[in-house]
Amino acid sequence: MIEVLNVSRSFTTKKGIIHRKTETMKAVNNISFSVNQGEIFGLLGPNGAGKTTTIKMLTTLLTPNEGKITILGYDTVKRAKEVQKRINFIYGGERSLYWRLTAKDNLIYFADLYNIEYKQMQSRVQGLLKLVGLEKYADKKVETFSKGMKQRLQIARALINDPEIVFMDEPTIGLDPAATHLLHEIILDLKTRGKTIILTTHYMKEAEELCDRIAFIKQGEIVDIQSPSAHINTAAKNSGKAIKSIEDVYMHYFGAERGVE
Amino acid sequence: MKPILRIVYSSMKIQMKQTFAREMFRYIVIIFPLFTGLLMGFVYMDKSTADFVSYAMVGTATMTMWSSIAFSSASDVQRERFMGALAQIFNTPEKFYYIMLGKVLGNTLLGAVSMVISFIFVGAVFKVPINIVNVPVFLAVFFISVVSYMMIAMMLSGVLAVSRQARTLMNSMDYIIFLLTGSAFPITVLPIYLRFFSYALSPTYAIKLLRLAITGSVNTSAFYLYFVGLIMTTVLYFVVSLGLYRTIELRARVNATLEVI
Question: Best label site of A117, A132, B88, B139, fewest CB within 10 Å?
């Protein structure tokens, strides 16, 4: 379903006014992995590890400098439009919506951009608003919404084209427990319907509960990819310590660089 | 509705809704044209009726149209980037060109309202009868001028989509156009080397043609020359905007310019 082969991505920035210096930073370095249909695949790592860059390359927002990404058989660079029809994505936070428009207007606009048939559009918009618990607020402007409501609307927007793959970059950031629970239910429901989810998060418990497999990423490179239980066993075996959770695994991989033993 | 028309119409509708929701809308569409009209009216009130109509009425009307279409459209790219919506709409399966065309069209309709308001207001305040001698030609030239302004707006929005630094250019474009196109004074007072730039800008021809249509001097060689100039510059802008948007599809992904960070 998703094939990532030897992918790298660098960013170049220019500094200085008279003596312009070009600096290149490698955000992702030669990563390879694959994701199966119906899988919830987690990408975990510290800030700046390359998770968001990876997600952006997978969603066709960025082109890799090296390597190849294939989604549902389509090359993300050469056949980006084919990929875009079949995927959608959510970034954590309150952005990516038109705040001065109503929730319904936001969803209808994106339904138009994804060329959803008129006959289906109204029922799909109503259904999605109901799914995320915003049906009573359909005609309210987004700027009046709480952070959690905006995030729920983002989820509805990301499902407007009934995507086969949904990419979620820290979708529960800043959400209260009820909103987080609702999102988890939606993610698991999507899985039962055969959808594939790619998830990045800093909440280890969330990753452990939801993900079928987890890739730990460190300084742009993948450290290891396994199921949560296999990660726990491997880390316990390698470290000789009592590792009982994905959070312990995370600390095993990244704790030292944060000054934590 | 055909998919392309649907995208254009939907984007136009959303654009206008967002504009109406902004406080600045009253300033741009109503207040700015009135003040500019008053200013130009007082400058030209002691001149001949021909000069008054040319500069205080047609000049002001075209200036306000320009501000509304080009400046707003280009600013919208920046606004959408900060809202995080630029990446979202860019990553839908529909062509970014059609989405932006719809947004520019929304601003155009509002710009046309500004134009009419200022034209009528200046005529009424300074008691100058609005007497368009050749109405069909005036309407035809007005329509082509609007299309031409839209193509300029498309070029500018395209440049802004691939370059975050283009904002500086955009802020200075407003006055450059006022100075170079003869909307406030005849371009014959400009140095010859600057007039070269004037004739590369379609508003220069549009303003001259509108004046000739108002006075009825449409059967002169100058009219046909300006008409060819307007058509040629408009076609050129169209071709350039198409090319720009083709490169945007690639470069925005390569250079990661769609987002704030």
Answer: A117
Question: What does the DSSP assignment read for B227-244?
Answer: HHHHHHHHHHHHHHHHHH
Q: Which of A131, A126, A125, A99 is nearest to A112 (CA)?
A: A125
**Helix, strand, or coil (residue B253):** helix
DSSP-H helix ranges across chain B: 3-21, 24-26, 32-44, 49-51, 60-66, 72-83, 85-90, 96-125, 135-162, 166-180, 192-198, 202-215, 221-255
Helix, coil or strand: residue A2: strand
Q: Which of A107-111, A173-177, B164-168, B170-174 has the lowest mean pLDDT?
A: B164-168
**Residue from the list B91, B99, B250 with its beta carbon closest to the beta carbon of A61:** B91
Q: Where are the alpha helices (DSSP H) in A134-226?
A: 147-158, 177-192, 204-210
Task: Band the pLDDT of A257: cuts 50, 70, 90.
Answer: low
Please state, for a pLDDT cut of 90, what percent of chain B lies above it.
19
Contact A35, A41 (CB under 8 A): yes
Q: How far is B186 from chain A (nearest CA, A)?
A: 38
pLDDT mean across residues, chain A: 89
Q: Among all residues of chain B, which has the CA nearest to that of A101? A: B18
Q: Are strands A87-91 and A40-44 parallel, antiparallel or unpaired?
A: unpaired
Token couple for B87:
């990446």
For chain A, what percent of residues have pLDDT higher than 70? 95
Alpha-carbon radius of gyration of chain A: 19
Task: Give the number of other CB atoms < 10 A from CB of residue B82.
Answer: 11
Which residues of B are less than 8 Å from A108 in CB distance? Answer: 10
Picking from B13, B91, B259 by the largest number of A CB atoms within 10 A of its own CB, the best residue to mutate is: B91
Q: Which two tokens stand for residue B43?
A: 């400058």
Note whether A101 contacts B21, CB cutoff 8 Å. Answer: yes
Range picked from A160-169, A170-179, B87-96, B242-251 for highest mean pLDDT:
A160-169
CA distance A24 to chain B (A): 12
Distance CA A53, CA A71 (A): 16
CB-based contact B14 A62, cutoff 8 Å: no
Q: How many CB pairs under 8 A join A and B?
A: 78
Reduced to 3 states (helix: H, G, I; strand: E, B; else coil), residue B247 is helix
Residues of A in contact with B10 (CB under 8 A): 108-109, 112-113
Q: What is the ipTM of this complex?
A: 0.84
Place of tokens 């990819």: A225
Task: Judge residue B99's burial from the number of C-beta atoms within 10 Å of its C-beta, 0-12 exposed, 13-18 middle, 19 or more buried.
Answer: buried
Which pair of tokens denotes residue B73?
């459209």
